[in-house]
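REVIEWER CHECKLIST
Item 1: Sequence provided? yes
Item 2: Single chain? yes
Item 3: Sequence as submitted:
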Amino acid sequence: MTLLEVTDVTVRFAGVIALDGTSLAVPAGSVTGLIGPNGAGKTTLFNVITGLQSPTSGRVVLDGTDVTRAKPHRRARKGIARTFQRLEAFGSLTARDNVLVALEMRRRWWPERYVPGPLADTLLAQVGISAVADAKVESLPTGTARLVEVARALAVAPKVLLLDEPSSGLDERETHELGELLLRLSSDGLGVLLVEHDMAFVMDTCAHINVLDFGRVIARGTPGEVQADAAVQQAYLGTRAHR
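Item 4: Structure as written out by the authors:
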């Protein structure tokens, strides 16, 4: 089942075309990758999906509902959550309090009752950072702070989770554990859209990958199909990209 569908999205900034008829789908129960060179339009696409950027044309459909003109908070309530390439956690708050902020916001629209404290601890354990629950985020390594953001995003019980460079700052072991976490979350029905430059992480984690270059999807398919695509090798996965 497709949870998120982006169809023919174009974004123009004056004379610059940031996205050019871009389409992709995020199914339930799997991790979908979005890769491409810097400046390809990946963050712009995330902003369109979450409502931070209005498209010049095209549609965004979430779980069968057209949300193209919906405000960001409406999309969040309907089931879209994201992390950012730059850390957006509350540095002066603890890891637990960062998650509690999201849980308190969720209580405003969530129909089922829950106790925020224990649920915050469950989410921190889920992403593997229970040991730093009481530490201020500003004191944490960048990689750990990113996991706080993942836990906070999960706190709103999303249908679709958008992750922008989540492995940045993580070591090899932490990256592997993050991949396993995303696979577990998706196996429960969550749809994950992953922007990432760590190709080993992408190839090991994603079931399907979209390759964006100059605002257009130039290839899509399984990791094996994408790696074998000549256009992808030239644009992104070639010798120069690995230097």
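Item 5: Key structural point noted by reviewer: Strands lie at 2-13, 16-27, 30-35, 57-62, 65-66, 80-82, 160-164, 191-195, 208-213, 216-221.
Item 6: Recommendation: ____
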